[in-house]
Every structure is written in C-alpha cells, then in structure tokens.
Design goal:
alpha+beta, de novo design (two linked rop proteins), 3-stranded antiparallel β-sheet, 8 strands, 33% helix, elongated, binds zinc ion
C-alpha cells in the first residue's frame, strides 16, 4: 500500500463502528476521497480535532489496492472553522460550500485550484467577510473550474447578441442568457434584470486571484435566486443548505430594506438553531 500526503478539507464524517469513522475529504492533490479513520471515536483519538467538519488538515493515508476504503493514518489540524460555535449564518454558508464540493466533484478527481478557492473562501467566511458576495464568488468560480460556467454575454444557444431590454431571459437548460428567438419554446427560463446581469457578469469573469467584486444590496436577492435555480438544475435537486444560505447571505440586504424576503428564505427543520430571516 502506497502512503500519500495532502492538505484536505473535512467534508463529511460518518460513524462506522464504535471506535471508527468514515471521513469524506476534499484533498488538494487527490480530489474527493473517502477514508477509514480507525480510533477516531475513541476519547483519546489519534486525530484529535482534525476531523471536525470544515477543518483544514494535513493528512497521510494508505491507498487500498482493492475497492476498499483508503486508510487514514495521520491528520494534523491546520485550521479550525472558528465561527462554528458563534455564528450560525457563517456555519451554514460553510456547510453549503462543503455540500457543493461533495456534490459537484467526483471521487479521485483532483482540482488544486478548486481546493485553493474553497480554502480561501472558508477562511473569509470564518473571518467576517460579507457573506453574500463571497458565497456567490465561490459558486461562480467553482462552476468555471468544473466547466459549468453560465454564458452571460451573448445568447447561449446561437451566440447572437442579446436584446436591449430591461429584463433578459436566462435558460437553465441552455446554461445562459438567451436571445428573443432562442427563448421561444424553451422551458425553465428565469427572467433577470439588466442591473443584476451586469453584476453577475463581473462575478463570472473575476479571476481567482482577485476577491469577489462588489454586490449591491438591490441585486442580492435576484442574484441568489438565479444562482440557486441554476445549481439546483445542474445537480438535479435542490441543495439541502440553499434555504439557510439564502437567509444568511441576503440578511444585510433585508436589514437595509433593499430586498423583499422571498418565500423560500424561511429555514426548515433546525429546532432552536434555526436561522431567522428577521435579524
Ligand atoms: Zn439565440
């Protein structure tokens, strides 16, 4: 069995036996991997706090030659997600990034640039960044890295110019904006304002070296709605964290009165820990 090392983000931890866990990690060098962490549930675990969700750690694991799980032999904590205990909005946005990494990537398909993006975005979310732009920036950049970037400058079907109108059609199936002719007969169309489209283009084009561009309060709700519909369409289902993220990410805009609370911002099933849509 070969021994491998990498930096990794903890995506999921599932109890496996009385003493062990199966851990899903997004590693910088090997992409998403599933490893068996023997002894992780013991009081004196050899991995200590390195296997908490959202933690970034340095791992060593042994590759199994057969179909079995790889075996985690070391995990040293590099960075803990500190907001977990004090800010639910940040925690939910962090969970959402994990959910996207789990759902949009394939096992054993490395994307070091996506790892760096996630690492940077999680650190920003944890350290007080405005949530709406950082989450939207992560979504656009992740989609671009994985080959799902929406087309927003011209018609995604025919490449023709977009009409000069107040509202433009975005086709989820086409994966971008549509001209008048191509939108005929298309289903799953979202109408997007010219103002929001202008902002979304900036997010779609921003390079990874630069942080997120500005996101005016007036287009926060609309941007979030469009991105969430598009991602749900790509995945074939609605991510579990979407309603929580919508609440957390546009809270600033709600506070300033720039955005009406959409029907979907009421979070489901969190007991006392439910995020409130009214700050
Ligand atoms: Zn067209």
């Amino acid at each position: 069995m070969a021994s491998e090392k990498s930096l990794a983000i903890v995506l999921r931890v599932v109890e496996f036996s009385e003493t062990s866990c199966v851990v899903t990690l997004f590693s910088r060098d090997f992409g998403k991997i599933g490893v068996l962490a023997k002894g992780a549930r013991r009081p004196k675990s050899p991995f200590e706090a390195a296997l908490d969700l959202l933690a970034v750690c340095r791992i060593v694991f042994l590759r199994k030659s057969s179909d079995g799980l790889d075996l985690l032999t070391e995990a040293k904590l590099e960075r803990r997600f500190r907001s977990a205990s004090r800010d639910l909005g940040r925690l939910y946005c962090g969970y959402y990034l994990l959910e996207l990494l789990r759902e949009l990537t394939h096992q054993g398909d490395p994307h070091p640039d996506l790892f760096d993006l996630a690492d940077h975005s999680l650190a920003a979310i944890d350290h007080g960044a405005d949530l709406a732009p950082i989450v939207l920036w992560f979504e656009f950049a992740a989609l671009r890295i994985l080959g799902h970037a929406p087309r927003l400058d011209d018609c995604a079907e025919c490449g023709g110019a977009l009409p000069d109108l107040e509202r433009i059609a975005f086709g989820q199936v086409a994966g971008g904006t549509l001209c008048q002719r191509c939108r005929e007969g298309q289903r799953q169309i979202i109408s997007v304002s010219r103002e929001a489209l202008c902002v979304l283009r900036k997010f779609n084009e921003t390079s990874l070296e630069h942080g997120p561009p500005g996101l005016p309060d007036a287009v926060r709700g609309e941007s979030r709605g469009l991105m969430q519909h598009y991602i749900a369409h790509l995945l074939g289902h609605r991510p579990r964290m979407h309603s929580y993220v919508a609440t957390a990410a546009i809270r600033t805009a709600i506070r300033t009165g720039a955005v009406q609370v959409p029907g979907e911002t009421s979070a489901r099933g969190g007991g006392n820990s439910r995020p409130s849509s009214t700050p």
